[in-house]
Amino acid sequence: MQKVLGDFIHALRQAGLPISSSETLDALNAAQLVGIDNAPLLKQSLGMTLTKCLEHRLIFDQIFDRYFNHSFNRDDQLKDDNRASSADSVANYKSDNEAIEPVSELVNQLESPLAQQLMSNDPSAMQVMMTSAAAAAGAQDVTFMTQVPMVTYRVMQALGDGELQQELAEMADSDENCAEVQLLRQRRTRLQQQVRDYVEQQYLLFNQNEPHKRRESNIQKISLTSIDQRNYKLMGELVRKAAKRLASMHSRRRRITKRGLLDVRRTIAANAAYDGFLFHTKWKSTRVERPKVMVICDVSGSVSKVARFLLLFLYSLQDVLPNVRSFVFSSDMAEVTQLFEQQDMDQALAEVIHHWGNKSTNYGKSLADFEQIGLGDIDNRTTVIMLGDARNNNEDGNVSVWEELYRRSQRVLWLNPEGQVSWDSGDSIMSQYAPYCSHVETCNSLRDLNRILGSVLKHEA
Amino acid sequence: MIIRNQDKINSPDTIKQQFEALGYICSDAIATSVYLACHLQKPILVEGPPGVGKTELAKKTADLLSAPLIRMQCYEGLDEAKALYEWKYGKQLLYTQLLKDQLGDVMRGAKGLDESVSRLHQFGDIFYSDEFLEPRPLLEALRSEDGAILLIDEIDKADQEFEAFLLELLSDYQISIPELGTVKAKSKPLVFLTSNNTRELSDALKRRCLHLYIPFPSKAIEQKIITAQVPELNDKLKQQLVEFIGELRDMSLKKVPAVSETIDWARALLLLNVDNLDHEWVKTTLNLLLKFQDDIEAVEPEIHNLLKVATKQR
């Protein structure tokens, strides 16, 4: 049972459920307690011990059905075999059973072990042989659907298919035992089908998610500017996942200050040792930190792609960053906070890019606009995040506004999608702005985003 | 507690029947979870929409095992002094004042500070002993001689620090008090934690618990619940009522009616002598089911359609 459950848990982990070893032990204990005869009860018990949220429970249910139904069905089939009563298999087995009688004495004449096995018509022994051969051939490690035929072939070879084929060929030449050859061929085909089904099922159980996972981890590293349209959806999911993780890490962080109400109980407790004289006062005042964040995004050309994910990320952080104000610009700047609040993310992004995107960039003009619409609201608890490549088409950079912004705010982050080598090359004026930033970082992958925003939150707390 | 009640909890089915006898109609999943929790001695984390009987489950389990129910309501700012133990400071102060003379006697004749201090030490930590300890729910549950049901209600409302503090209790049924040392459970309590999912609980906590999600009950079970709670209601009305509520739950409302609201409604209809659900009655009693004016306004124009569905499927 341990083996079966171990494999099952392995399959669950492959599907992305986080199952710890202590939970595995619990599951084993539970299974021992309830027994394995009652499938629904077992399913509930394992579900309770192994999955801890509804979402995981649904995945669990699916995999449980797939994994155990196979074994249950197999058991049923075995029983049916013995009784030869199942409606489906009657026709099949009847013909076999009739055929068996005349050839049974020939079984002894067969030389290859697989042929003997096939003729002896013992499905459970066959099943055991197949399972162990499949394990040896690495059926659990099939990572792509296309590998299935190859592994099937390997399993067949391990079962002794080579010898069987040879013997079949010899027997066919002598054409004495025509009926027997026919039957043997038929059974071999059936076995092959079984092996194939088994390998396929192993693939579905254990590794179906493997390519998906690999793609996810690749896409984390890939440059945001080169992500193509078809990966947007996956990327969006990943962004939301990462944002959720950050949010839960940083939600509800509190700070005890030396202000507020006198905490009488704790004060007396702390001063009991001094005969009740209140030497040390204790205060209770808790404040939930709500960082204010302003994002300014360049939405021209290649930067707009990164902006898309930065904005998506920030808005997925709503729980911990409820006060995000966002501005976009290429030549003119505008506030788009409302737009994002009212509309679905994808639509809003499309509209932003349509309205403001893809024009020639002018940082000077945009910063002048910002002076009008946003600068006044920046106080010393505001973090400003700028996303842009500082490519200004050789115009005046209006650095004084940026300097003022830096002076007023708590922190200024400049995220540049270009690598450090290309800063200041061509029309980039990064070095003019850089002195007035707390941090200047290259930001070009989901990983960068995750790291940088994580540090924003940590800094605030 | 577990051993004493062995016959009541020897299989999930028995538990289910016992619960039914107590008027708590439950699904197989709930019975299984209680069965596992009793036998594996693990806490149960109960989640689900408000009003599906999460707290009630702990109460009925206490009834079933005839054990005391110790309830701790969680809230923001709950700390160990309110959850675990507190020293009786007033008593400590009073005693030091009263014993001043006694102390003088004890100390009389001692030469030098060293000797005085060593004499004092002979008396041990009187002021930090059981006498001065005020047990709070968690400690009470651990000290209970014959096991207890500990209900930690709405754990998601407590702070993350408190959640971390619970971990020792949940995995080892023990708690460390600096002045006294480790307190081990005399008899392991059965712990229920409930959560309304206002925030994500930590993995460490989840790992230590069995997880039980109680969804809204199926129509059949809900009918049984009403039968158990409001036995006087006639079958036809009961069926209409459950269908109607089922339809309401499919609508997108701010707060969908829970089981407790169904029961309230059933009681109200009984009181009003209604024997057939019609438009007028539904409209006048809708405020029992829906707790937001927005919801009521959204549902009112739909009542006709909902009723058609509810009364048709008989």
UniProtKB/TrEMBL annotation, chain A:
<dbReference type="InterPro" id="IPR036465">
    <property type="entry name" value="vWFA_dom_sf"/>
</dbReference>
<protein>
    <submittedName>
        <fullName>VWA domain-containing protein</fullName>
    </submittedName>
</protein>
<dbReference type="InterPro" id="IPR008912">
    <property type="entry name" value="Uncharacterised_CoxE"/>
</dbReference>
<dbReference type="Pfam" id="PF05762">
    <property type="entry name" value="VWA_CoxE"/>
</dbReference>
<dbReference type="InterPro" id="IPR011195">
    <property type="entry name" value="UCP010256"/>
</dbReference>
TrEMBL record, chain B:
<dbReference type="InterPro" id="IPR050764">
    <property type="entry name" value="CbbQ/NirQ/NorQ/GpvN"/>
</dbReference>
<dbReference type="InterPro" id="IPR011704">
    <property type="entry name" value="ATPase_dyneun-rel_AAA"/>
</dbReference>
<dbReference type="GO" id="GO:0016887">
    <property type="term" value="F:ATP hydrolysis activity"/>
</dbReference>
<feature type="domain" description="AAA+ ATPase">
    <location>
        <begin position="40"/>
        <end position="218"/>
    </location>
</feature>
<dbReference type="InterPro" id="IPR027417">
    <property type="entry name" value="P-loop_NTPase"/>
</dbReference>
<dbReference type="GO" id="GO:0005524">
    <property type="term" value="F:ATP binding"/>
</dbReference>
<dbReference type="InterPro" id="IPR003593">
    <property type="entry name" value="AAA+_ATPase"/>
</dbReference>
<protein>
    <submittedName>
        <fullName>MoxR family ATPase</fullName>
    </submittedName>
</protein>
<dbReference type="Pfam" id="PF07728">
    <property type="entry name" value="AAA_5"/>
</dbReference>
